[in-house]
TrEMBL record:
Domain GH84 per the UniProt entry, residue ranges: 1-150
The protein's name in its UniProt record: OGA GlcNAcase
GO molecular function, one term: beta-N-acetylglucosaminidase activity
Pfam family, one: NAGidase
Organism lineage: Eukaryota, Metazoa, Chordata, Craniata, Vertebrata
PROSITE patterns: GH84 (PS52009)
GO BP annotations listed: glycoprotein metabolic process
Domain of life: Eukaryota
Length: 204
């Protein structure tokens, strides 16, 4: 019926989206959901180009970055993806995911995400460790990163897309910029306080 997989997927997704009354949040995960799965590249992928053209504009498209588990995200990469998908992507961040190897647990701060990404994102989802208690630092430091991004977007000199893009590939610690080390220290203080609070609960 359909000349390509992308057109089939877009047709079904559009129909479901419309049948549901075009909800404000409707996410589509493409078969090519990171750069390493694209052939030959995101900007030249016939599959992604078709999705960008065919999917209704209200549908958010999930993207994990350069790889399934991406160590870094840059504004340059997101700009390329935005161009081919004709919308800002929703980042599904697998930085802390350990469902593929449960012998590993990731306890470090949210890092490798360049400052100034907010204008390039439609949303960001964090795929955490399978172990609930291990996610205090990941979620706490993600919150610190997010708050810093909001403050940056609110500054007059960071309001424009051009400035945000220029900052996007800088990992420098400018004044007021997100510091993974500082975020980690704040998270540890709060985590110790939470552990102590739970230890004092009756029955603990």
């Amino acid at each position: 019926i359909f000349p390509s997989l992308a057109q089939a997927q877009a047709s079904v997704a559009n129909e479901v989206y419309q049948q549901l009354g075009q909800p404000s949040i409707f996410l589509f995960c493409p078969t090519e959901y990171c750069s390493s799965l694209c052939s030959p590249s995101p900007s030249k992928s016939c599959y992604l180009l078709t999705l960008g053209q065919e999917l209704l504009p209200g549908i958010g498209i999930i993207w994990t970055g350069p790889k399934v588990v991406s160590r870094e995200l840059s504004a340059t990469l997101l700009e390329e993806v935005e161009g081919v998908l004709q919308r800002c992507p929703v980042i599904w961040d697998n930085l802390y995911a350990n469902d593929y190897d449960c012998r590993r647990v990731f306890l470090g701060p949210y890092t490798g995400r360049a400052p100034g990404l907010m204008p390039r994102l439609r949303g960001l989802l964090l795929n955490p460790n399978c172990e609930l208690q291990a996610n205090f630092i990941p979620i706490h430091t993600l919150g610190s990163w997010f708050q810093n991004e909001l403050r940056s977007c609110g500054r007059p000199d960071h309001a424009g897309m051009e400035t945000a893009t220029a900052l996007g590939d800088s990992q420098g610690t400018q004044e007021g910029s997100y510091s993974p080390q500082e975020a980690l220290e704040l998270a540890l203080l709060d985590w110790v306080a939470e552990i102590n609070r739970q230890a004092l609960e009756p029955g603990r």
